[in-house]
Amino acid sequence: MAHKEPTSTHLDDRYSHPTADAENWADAVPRLTEAEIFWLSTVRPDGRPHVTPLLTIWSRDALYFSSGERERKVMNLQDNREVVLTTGTNTLNEGHDLVIEGEAVQESDDARLRELAAMYERKYGSVWHFDVKDGAFVGAGGPALVFGVTPRTAFCFAKSPYSQTRWQFA
């Protein structure tokens, strides 16, 4: 499936080994698709940061996550929809860490939510089955709002050799 390409790619020489090349966005997309855990960073109304692990689905050039409407991350999004999502490895000398910056936009179209619910179940198993009702996922824990984050800026931190690639999107 074709994906949206960045408008610019930049290898930051300050943080990259002299032999490193900029990473390709086409190589990052499968990593975003396959990663099981992401860390979502939001900002509380008083300005303090909030970070939490969650599950995501990569679809149509965006990362999607769900959350109960009374959870801290959703309450934070009511005041500030700017977020950062990170994933990667906990190793020093191998792998890639990815950072996605963008705006969390609530998805409420029931047809699209059914697509995303099916993707969650395929990726994470039947324990993550969701029905869709009234613009939200409905599961064992009750209703959950769904948000999509289309990258505005993304980073890849490669570890062998070390490099930092920044992608900008229109």
From TrEMBL:
<dbReference type="InterPro" id="IPR012349">
    <property type="entry name" value="Split_barrel_FMN-bd"/>
</dbReference>
<protein>
    <submittedName>
        <fullName>Pyridoxamine 5'-phosphate oxidase</fullName>
    </submittedName>
</protein>
<dbReference type="InterPro" id="IPR052019">
    <property type="entry name" value="F420H2_bilvrd_red/Heme_oxyg"/>
</dbReference>
<dbReference type="Pfam" id="PF01243">
    <property type="entry name" value="PNPOx_N"/>
</dbReference>
<keyword id="KW-0560">Oxidoreductase</keyword>
<dbReference type="InterPro" id="IPR011576">
    <property type="entry name" value="Pyridox_Oxase_N"/>
</dbReference>
<feature type="domain" description="Pyridoxamine 5'-phosphate oxidase N-terminal">
    <location>
        <begin position="31"/>
        <end position="127"/>
    </location>
</feature>
